[in-house]
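Q: Hi! First time doing this. I have a protein sequence and I read that you can turn it into a structure. Is that right? Here it is:
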Amino acid sequence: MRMLLWPSLEIFSRLFPAGMACCTTFSPHKMSSALRFFSFRMGADLKFKVTRQEAVLVAPCLPTPKEHLYLSNIDDQAGLRFHIPVAFFYKHSYLKEDQDPAKIIRKALEKVLVHYYPLAGRLREAASGKLKVECTGEGVLFVEADADVTLAEFGDLHPPFPCWDDLLHDILTPQTLINSPLLLIQVTRLKCKGFIFAIVMNHIIMDGMGLAQFLTALGEIAMGASGMSILPVWKRETLKPRLKPSISLPLYEYEEDEGKIMSVDVDKLSHASYFFGPKEIETLKRRACMKSSTFEALSGFLWRLRTKALNMAVEQEVRFMFPLEIRSTFEPPLPRGYYGNAIVFACAKTTAGMLLNNSLSYAVELIIKAKTVVNNEYICSVIDLMEIKGHSHFTVVGSFMVSDITKIQFRDVDFGWGKAIYGGPTTGGAGVVPGVLTFFIPYRNSNGVEGKLVPICLPSHAMQKFQLELAQAMENEAHPFISSSI
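A: Yes, that's right. Below is the predicted 3D structure, encoded as structure tokens:
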């Protein structure tokens, strides 16, 4: 499958250099024997049948306003013009023995959309190219399905999931961002009476915190509450540009790439997940030789590892970007219940040679510095940049982005069957340009150890090198990393 993506015909070969024709999947048996690697307890060859009912539109159960709503420049930027899939796996509950999760969630959805009525609308494009929401009340897509598989057969739940195309009837594509449903939900009942709740979100309409707020409300109503604990607030005008837009600070994340279009063969990308427990993280913090957070130490480590795996030229500029949530830091603070995109991207920049020829502490120091420069003026400069230069895409050449969703706690989403066993993104590499973005997902492995799960998406040749470099980097450590791939 090919996707036309931003920004240039040459960028993908520069982003993922050398060996793109290779499409074999890496083998965990190629690693250093000094490091114990274990596959996740999941049958990579697990196959099962999913029977889907026809997708239907679920609309608000009461009349809702018919109006056009403003999207902020942060919502409307090119780098967020994509769909992102998120999955939740739930066990069977004896308290809900005869209750159908699909029917309960669908009924709750009709009620929640009365308050979140913009989600039942459609994106429209203005003459200037800026997007807005038309509140039509048409609804969101909803699919009921049944699978002849048990939750236990999945083993350890982590991306990439087997038969995922059957578990989420994703008919939304990059070409259907506009004039199409903003959400697609599929509830798949399992043979063990557990179920999978999968959702595709149009990122233009909300961020991860906004999605968690919406799903929490959906769960509250599904469990019989008369109302939701947090009422949604639109107010995207709060993030309007200044009367005299200006860019007063360097914004390395929006430095322009050459050209406008590139072609990516997404079928030649490999996917794998890596688990980093407390011992590995403590090792990385120690190696950083400075006071650093888990995010900073792990991010610096992965940034260096990924850069090396991609064989980037020493003079190649490389960037590490990470979204920072601004609900409380923006002046004035955004109102409680705001569910739009409330993020800006912090950016550390250097060259591949400098990154790899220096120690981990060099990368960590760059990341810490990038975080400290994000203040209210920085946020306003980002908003104003979109007004001055158009709805820019962040730089992709040589870039790596990590979104830490630990604080979002998708696992807490409860529809009445208890908290999710797994709740989070279904893949690394989501976004307009596959392979740039990954996530730090809170995760408990089969031994009960809490840590970070990191799904990675790379060309096959780079994935092989990434895993070998990871093994060598940690070969003196007794505690194993865990990986799996397709």
